Amino acid sequence: MTAQQLKNSILQMAVQGKLVPQDPNDEPASVLLQRIIAEKQELIKAGKIQKDKNASEIFRGASRNLPYAYYEQIGKEIRDISDEIPFDIPDSWEWCRLKNIVNAVSARRVHQSDWKTSGIPFYRAREIAKLAEDGIVENELFISRELFDDYSKSGVPTSGDLMVTAVGTLGKTYIVKDTDEFYYKDASVICLENYGKISPEYLKYLIMSPYMETTIKDNSSGTTVGTITLVRANEYLFPIPPLPEQYRIVAKIEELLPYIEKYDTAETKLSALNTTFPETLKKSILQEAVQGKLVPQDPDDEPASVLLERIRAEKQALIKAGKIKKDKHESVIVTRDKIPYEIIDGKERYIADEVPFELPESWCWCRLGDILLKLTDGTHSTPKYTEKGVPFISVKDVSAGKLDFSNCKHISEKEHTELYERCNPEFGDILLTKVGTTGIPVIVDTDKQFSLFVSVALLKFNQELLYNKYLLYMINSPLVQKQATENTKGVGNKNWVMRDIANTLIAIPPLAEQHRIVAKIEELLPVISTISK
Fold this sequence. Notes:
Strands 5-11-8-9 form a four-stranded antiparallel beta sheet, sandwiched between helices. Strands 17-24-21-22 form a four-stranded antiparallel beta sheet, with helices on one face. Strands 18-20-19-23 form a four-stranded mixed beta sheet, with helices on one face. It contains 15 helices and 25 strands. By secondary structure, the chain is an alpha+beta fold. The longest helix has about 50 residues, at about 245-290.
């Protein structure tokens, strides 16, 4: 049960007479209603309110020797309204129409030309809703003192009256305080002038209850924006307890509300935790993986330093054969006395400030570009698209973390052949988003040929020396994602440039450990998915 559901349950119990015990010594609500009727008659005589031609009285049949049912008398006519009564109430309570206990009124029209920047506050539904929520409002509109004094002759809100929003979010209720002085917008706010015989706090909680929320919704008019009209509001059925019980109900609700608020705070925190926990846990697992903490090291594994030497040797052979270009800024990262240094063009520099954590002895730091046989991106020119042909992949086709051909564009076979000479994605390679949503890697899991746009980078490497799934998880880890975020530049269409991609610092374990790490990650990820559900 959520905090709101708990609050609704308490309010519903309150208006059904189930929240506090009844006291047989309380003056019954029927006597209270008779006093209200008498006071209304005095106000009508004094010309302060208008006579209601359809004033009604609701009673139980047993009180007039009629069959058990609820009846309503209007003038001399008596009719059975049992089908309108939504629930039973205690014997000391009574049902009545809103018009029989308060005077529901609207304001006189205030024209936009009468709006001022200072003076008497002029509240619309939005201001009343804000007051109902937290008791304060930063008002934008005012009317002059002269206009307010003139309209006061027809009546203005006074202490104990209830202001109810009649448009927008319906039924938000604010109780007027002694210190309040304001006017309100006709049609968007209704004022319930309280004769002082009903607890305004009880009426407010009654209007907030699920019963009244449903009643207001079912009786609101308007096609797209619901409204409360005076005619319909006057016919609302209100359950009225004895006055002392009204006070006990209010006291009990206000005793419970702070606990509900605490529960709501705890629930919100728990909900946020439940929402973020699976992703946080996944990031934590990937971070542990690239720090060498997810699986144990095996002293029999060939160390990463030897692996990197083999990769460098292969690259040199390919450069000599003219199959790949020489990297002008090839680097080697070495560690002495646990302090990392980077050697570029024979020059050594201290990089401890770049290295975020220590690695196991069998691991090595290196730059992403130094383990790749090829790092390039797709064509920088927009090709001529065709209805059918070879798939043409851009960032939108990989941003969900998988290679998706379902909505991709197509180009001609001829243009693809030209583009494929420079950028040739093949099975097992990694694609990496570099424009817009940057840093999302996907493994090419198809033998189908396709071409790339500039928004996607292509990472090619020797798949016998490096496990592509390890590289995928490493790029998804906080280690690389932080660098991707920091190095993505631009305001509109953000770009992670190739130079910065190549310069990304990565952690490489022995090949055998790469496989153990991936196996452990893929053992844990389904568990995380179960948690998120």
